[in-house]
Amino acid sequence: MPAALGAQAPVTYEVRFPNAVHHEAEITVTFADLPPGPLEVRMSRSSPGRYALHEFAKNVYSVSAEDGRGRALTIARPDPYGWTVAGHDGTVRFRYTLFADRADGTYSAIDLTHAHLNMPATFVWARGLEERPIRITFHPPAGSGWKAATQLVPTDDPMTFTAPNLQYFLDSPTELSAFTLREWTITSGGRTQTIRLAVHHAGTEEDVDRYTEMAQKVVAEQIAVFGEAPAFDYGTYTFIADYLPYASGDGMEHRNSTILTSSGSIAANAAGLLGTLSHEFFHAWNMERLRSRMLEPFDFERANMSDELWFGEGFTSYYDDLTIKRAGLMDLDEYARSIGAVLNAVINSPGRRYHSPVEMSRLAPFVDAAVSLDPTNRANTFLSYYTWGTAIGLGLDLTLRTRFRGITLDDYMRALWQRYGQPEIPYTIADLERALAEVTGDSAFAADFFDRYIRGRDVPDYEALLAHAGLLLRKANPGRPTLGQAQIRYDGGQAYLVSGTLVGTPLYEAGLDRGDRIISLAGRPVRSDDDVNAVLAAHAPGDVVEIRYEQRGREVTATLRLAEDPRLEVVTYERAGRPVTAEIRRFREAWLGSKAGAS
Ligand SMILES: [Zn+2]
Question: Which CATH number fits domain 481-564: 3.40.640.10, 3.40.50.720, 2.30.42.10, 3.30.830.10?
Answer without folding.
Answer: 2.30.42.10
